[in-house]
Write a structure and sequence with these properties.
The chain is an alpha/beta fold and about 240 residues long. The protein has a 7-stranded mixed β-sheet with strand order 3-2-1-4-5-7-6. The protein contains 11 helices and 7 strands. α2 crosses α9 and α3 crosses α4.
Length: about 240
C-alpha cells in the first residue's frame, strides 16, 4: 500500500490522463469562491496540476495568477497549455512566495493532501489581511446508482472520504468557512471515463492485479450503461466550493 505522500505526488506520471479525464471547474463556482478577494485579485493556484482550476480562475479576469505544484511533470503540462502563467514548485505547507503577496490562494482537488494546520498557517502568511482561501472539489454524484457502483470499483478517493466525514477543516488564521454546491453533468465516452479512472491516485499506485480488477469491473459497468465506442453518457457531478477569509 502506497503512503499518503506517495499518492499525493503520483499524478505527474499520469499527467496526460489527468488532463483528458478530469473535469473542468464551473466558472460560477470559482467566481463565488474568489468573491471576497475583490476585483483584479492576485491569485495563487496551489496544487495546480495541469491547470484545470487555473483556467477557471483566468476566466474571472484576475490581475494575476501564479501556479504552484510539487510535481515538475504536472507543471510542465500546465506550462505547455498556459505559457504565460508563472509556475513554481512548492506545496501549501511551503510556498515559494513573499508575505502578504496574494489576495487569494485556491486549491482544486488538493486540500485533502494538505496538513491543514501547517497549510493554513503558510497560506495565511502569503495572503494579505482579508485575503481568501478557496477550496473546491468536483465529486461524482454517487446518489446515481451506476456512479456509486463505479466509485466502489475504483475505490473511494481521499477527497470523497474527507467530504463525507464533514471536511474540509482549516486552522488559524482562518475561522468561519462558507460553502456552496453546484450540480451539473459531463458527457463522457468510454475512453474519457477510463482516462478519469486511470488518473486517480489509488489506481496509479495500485498493484497490477488490483489495477486489472478495476479495469475489468469498469469494462463490465460501461458495457451495461451503454458507454461503448464513441457513445457518450452523462456523468453527474456535484462541485462544492469553500471559502474562508
Amino acid at each position: 500500500m502506497e503512503s499518503h505522500d506517495d499518492m499525493s505526488r503520483s499524478f505527474g506520471v499520469a499527467a496526460d490522463l489527468y488532463q483528458a479525464g478530469r473535469p473542468e471547474y464551473p466558472v460560477e463556482a470559482v467566481a463565488w469562491m474568489l468573491e471576497p478577494a475583490g476585483a483584479n485579485a492576485r491569485v495563487v493556484d496551489v496544487g495546480a496540476g495541469t491547470g484545470k482550476l487555473t483556467r477557471a480562475v483566468l476566466a474571472t479576469k484576475p490581475e494575476s495568477v501564479t501556479a504552484v505544484d510539487p510535481d515538475p511533470l504536472m507543471l510542465a503540462k500546465l506550462h505547455a497549455v498556459l505559457p504565460d502563467i508563472p509556475v513554481l514548485e512548492g506545496t501549501a505547507e511551503n510556498l515559494p512566495l513573499d508575505d502578504n503577496s496574494a489576495d487569494a490562494v485556491v486549491l482544486g482537488q488538493a486540500w485533502h493532501w494538505v496538513d491543514p494546520v501547517a497549510g493554513s498557517r503558510e497560506i495565511g502568511r502569503v495572503l494579505r489581511p482579508g485575503g481568501v482561501l478557496g477550496l473546491i472539489w468536483n465529486i461524482r454524484d454517487a446518489r446515481v446508482d451506476w456512479v456509486a457502483r463505479m466509485s466502489e470499483i475504483m475505490h473511494n478517493s481521499n477527497a470523497e472520504e474527507m467530504i463525507a466525514s464533514g471536511g474540509p477543516h482549516v486552522a488559524a488564521p482562518f475561522t468561519q468557512v462558507e460553502s456552496r454546491s453546484w450540480e451539473w453533468t459531463r458527457e463522457m465516452t468510454r475512453e474519457d471515463l477510463l482516462s478519469m479512472a486511470r488518473s486517480r491516485s489509488y489506481v496509479i499506485t495500485a498493484e497490477p492485479h488490483e489495477r486489472a480488477r478495476i479495469e475489468a469491473g469498469l469494462a463490465e459497468l460501461f458495457d451495461e450503461v451503454g458507454a461503448v465506442g464513441s457513445v457518450s453518457v452523462a456523468l453527474p457531478y456535484v462541485t462544492t466550493a469553500f471559502r474562508a477569509v
